[in-house]
Each structure stands twice: as C-alpha cells, then as structure tokens.
Amino acid sequence: MKKALQTGHGQDLRSGYPVEGHLGNSAGKCERREREKIERRRGSPSFLHVFAGIISQLPAAGHSVYSACPETQLKSRTSMQSRVVTFATLAAVLLAIAAAQERRAIALLTVPGQGLAVSGNVSFVQTRPGEPVQVQGLISGLRPNRNFGFHIHEKGDISTKGCTSTGGHFNPQKRQHGAPTDKERHVGDLGNIRSDDGGVATISMLDPVLSLEGENNVLGRGVVLHEGEDDLGKGTGDDEKGSKATGNAGGRIACGVIGIQHPVEPWSSSAAQVALSSLALALLSAMMLL
Ligand SMILES: [Cu+2]
Ligand SMILES: [Zn+2]
C-alpha cells in the first residue's frame, strides 16, 4: 500500500474503506468483524441455509459471503467466478435430467387390413410426470372439411376385429363421455379433429388429463378415429344415452397402438430421476442464496 493512497483520516482512497492504524492489524480486525457477522447470520439456520452451508464447503464454491475487507474482496471475486462455473454445471445437469425425463410415445393410424386409405402418425409427449401431454399428428385420406371423433380406447389390440378390438373409450375413473375441456369426461376423450380441403387433419392439442405414467397412462392403448363427429356428451333426446357413452361418433375408420418412442430405458426409473431433479433444484436454490 502506497502512503499517498491513505488519508490522514483513516480512509483508503482506492477502496473507500476505513483503515485503522497499521494495515496488517486493520486487515486482521476487519476479517474478525466479518467472521463475527457470518456467525451472527448463522444463528438460526433455515432449510435452505443448511444447503447453502453444504455448498460453501465445496472446493469450487469457496468463500460465500460478501466481504467489506479489501483483502477478502479479491478472494471473493475469485470464488464468485468459481461459483458461476459450479452454477452453470449444475444448471446443465438439471437440463440433462429434465431432457431424460421427457417421455414420447407414437401411434401409426391405419385401416387394419385395408392398407393406407386413411393413415397418419400421432405423437404424445410429456415433459415430466404430472405435466399435460402434447398430442400432435397428421392424418390424411379423410373426407374433406369434416369433423371426426378422436379418442384413446382402452385396448391396444387391432389384430382380431380391426379397430373394434380396441374396446371402449379409455375410462379408468368410470365417468361419462364428454369434451376434452369437461371435468366429466373419459380420459380418452380428445373431442374432434377437422380435415381440410385436401382431406388432411392436423392435430395439435395439449391435454391435462392424458398421461404417459400412472393411472391415466395411455401407453399401449388404442387411438381411434371415427367416421362421424363426436357430440361431446351434449346430445339430447334419443341421442342422449349414446352421447353420454360414446359421443355418437359412429363407426371406426382408422386406429393404431400407442408405443414407446423415447426414452428406450425402462420408464419405471422415472421416480429416481424426479428425486435427482429435485435435489439438483434444491442445490441451485441454495447457491442463489449465497
Ligand atoms: Cu372412440
Ligand atoms: Zn368417451
């Protein structure tokens, strides 16, 4: 420290921090005050402070509390750089875990025994358990400009009686038929899809009831396209009974079985992935408090 940088009133002109007599002693006192401050802050640790404490013991994390001492500021800047690297690494790990959790399933729709008169692919993507399922697809060979009932049926069997083998609508909670937006609906009720002038229907919907895990898991079940429009459970008079059961959507013109597309690992390992993801999230939260 050059003498010119210190005023006669005990202030370091470079840092603006007060100095007390001999620099060595002042640095020691400053460090002591900082340590006492940290101890006071640690008086009643919360859950996240416990995590913060764990992180502060990591070699990459280094000194964790902002210091008013010039000597420790340099150390803090270095540790800040280390912490940014650690933070980025943990964020990358979290993203990788999230990507690993994503489940994708796919169904090829055909008319069993009749080639590809009506055909298309429908995909189902769930980013993590409990999240809505994104349903997307393209089906061609349809009559133009019409609505067609579109459902998940209970069985993934199209072998013996064509689309009839898929059974009824997938309905694990034993509810009445309805629209996808209704509370009272079958899990498999996806409403209608509409064809354009060229007989092609584009599907893009986000469904909060479908799932690729748990009770509402549609993996291995059937996708069915009907020849008529689904009345979404709103039929009256003579139509009411059929409306509450199937939506009066008529015969089945195409169907397929929903199968695994991604990941190829056993899906039962997802519970461990969720636990790992939660731990990584807690560590990130703790680091942000430091
Ligand atoms: Cu159906
Ligand atoms: Zn239904």
UniProtKB/TrEMBL annotation:
Destroys radicals which are normally produced within the cells and which are toxic to biological systems. Belongs to the Cu-Zn superoxide dismutase family. Binds 1 zinc ion per subunit. Binds 1 copper ion per subunit. This is Superoxide dismutase [Cu-Zn]. The lineage of its organism: Eukaryota, Metazoa, Ecdysozoa, Arthropoda, Hexapoda. Residues 229-248 are annotated as: Disordered. Its EC number is 1.15.1.1. The keyword Oxidoreductase applies. Keywords: Antioxidant, Copper, Disulfide bond, Membrane, Metal-binding, Oxidoreductase, Transmembrane, Transmembrane helix, Zinc. One of its GO terms (molecular function) is superoxide dismutase activity. Residues 229-243 have a biased composition (Basic and acidic residues).
